[in-house]
Every structure is written in structure tokens, then in C-alpha cells.
């Protein structure tokens, strides 16, 4: 049956423009001007992107199921204590969905590729805010609850998402209109300074993660004495932290394909492992958050900062609007380009 469908051919690294190149991946590239249909068909064909797509597309449905369960079973809208969890679960659905769409449609053109990944970065940034909102509500150690840091923690997290998305988008082409427009790219396109791009992008995502984790790291690694919230959930937090660091390590090092370029083009390259570890990390983070939420609820309701619309759903909406604005500004010079101009951005 499958043989009746003509699948598009795949290419080697020398047959596609530089903007599509991936470090140490030699073969399995899709046609750089694929149609949307060919992009969707490529889900069922082994290319170097296939597992990147599936490793985020399937978890999207698992996280969506979790979100629907909480909304339906726990009547979440009537209980403001659950709102941060809803924001977090929504962010957990959006980031793998945006990523799988970005990996699916990134070979439509060079400009589509950039715009796709701008959305991917925005979604990851939103996930960092989702984490911050739940950490503020359920994770903060007893000692730090109601502190000045706790009161401004979400405000700073919103600002961080702006910095994170801005920096991550900047890492691709530089500043919109100043360093690239629809005719030219004046400074460092990603393919000319890949190391600089990579460092900027790693910093862009490591920084909000580390900021969000300050109360958690204090609680599980540094805190001594009373008020440390040393409970059973800490084991789940350790699992999540270990996976998060391994995820960052894979992203930064490009292992294992760096050791044997061409050997992991289709299965087992670092980006696939990065996706899988990221999802497993999110799974443990979710379990930890739910457990802390359940076991600490009476104490938190009595002693912690009240959960309001503005420090949960409102912060998420603000973050969404700000991030979409940033993505729009970075995409504008590319959107105004024609197909012929697009070739110049390669
Ligand atoms: Zn990815």
C-alpha cells in the first residue's frame, strides 16, 4: 500500500543550502522547498527530521490528556488554587506542539524555517513561565514563602521570557531591520557564525530555567533546618533536575553524532535524544508539581501568597502577547520578502 504513495526523495548535506545544515548530520535531508503536503508526508518517511517530529508530537497528546483530565475531573475553573497548574499544563502542550510543527514545516523555505523556529523558541519561553507560575504556587520552600523574592518572582519570570525569546530569535539572524531585512543579512546568519549562535541560544534557554529553579535548588540542595519542605516529592524533583541538565548537555554538545558524523543521521542523533530527555524531564516535573500541590495544599492556602488571576492566568496571557509581538517583529522582514528574495537569505 505504502509503495503506491510516492514519497519525496531525500538529500545529502551537499545538496541542500547551508541554512538547512545540521551539525554532523550528513544525509536524510528533505527538499529545501518542500510543499506543505510533502512536509506532512515526511512524517511517514524516514528522514533526519522524522523522529524529531514524532518525539514531540506524541507527547503533545499525552500532555493534552493531562490538561483535559484536570479541567474536567477537578473542575479547575472553580478553584483558583488549580489555575497555576492549568497554565503549566497548557505550556506543556504548546511547546512540544510548536516544536513538532517547526520540525515538520521547516523545509518549506529558508524564511519558513526561521519563522517556524521563532515560534518554537517562543513556546519554550512560555513553558518557562508556566514552570515559574507553578513553582511560585506549589514549590517554594516554606522558609521563602511570602518573602520579597517570592512576591516579585513571577514578575521577573515574565521579563525573562521576553529576554529569552528575544535572544533566541536574535541567535538566528541578528536584529530585524538593523541586521537583516528582506534583501540581505548584514551580520551573522546562523550558518556563518554557528558557534556564536549556539552560545547565545544556550544562554537564552539556560538562563530562565536557572532563574525558575532558584527556589527549587535552594529547597533540595542548600536548605538546612526548619522550613525546608523536605518531603517525599524531592525524589521526583531530583529526577527532573538530572534530566534537565542532561537535556541541556545534549543540546550543547551534539553528542553522539559529533563522535561519528553520519552514523546517527536518522536514528539516535542528539536532537532526538534532547527531545526525549526534555519530555521525560517535563513528565517528572509534572508529577512533582502535582504531588507538592496535593500534599502542601492546606499549608499553602493558609500561609502563602494568594493565587489570583494576575499571578497565574493573567501573567500567562501577558507573556503570550509579549512573545507573539517579539516573534512578529523578528518575522516581519522575512514575511515581506518574496520567493526570489528568499533565496538570498540562504
Ligand atoms: Zn527540536
Automatic annotation (TrEMBL):
Highest taxon of the lineage: Eukaryota
UniProt key word Metal-binding: yes
GO MF, one example: metal ion binding
Transmembrane segments: 60-77, 83-105, 117-140, 152-178, 238-255, 305-330
Topology in the lipid bilayer: Multi-pass membrane protein
GO cellular component, one term: membrane
Subcellular location: Membrane
Binding site for Zn(2+): 103, 271, 275
InterPro entries: AdipoR/HlyIII-related
Keywords assigned by UniProt, alphabetized: Membrane, Metal-binding, Transmembrane, Transmembrane helix, Zinc
Family: Belongs to the ADIPOR family.
Protein name per the record: Progestin and adipoQ receptor family member VI
Organism of this sequence: Sphaeramia orbicularis
Gene: paqr5b
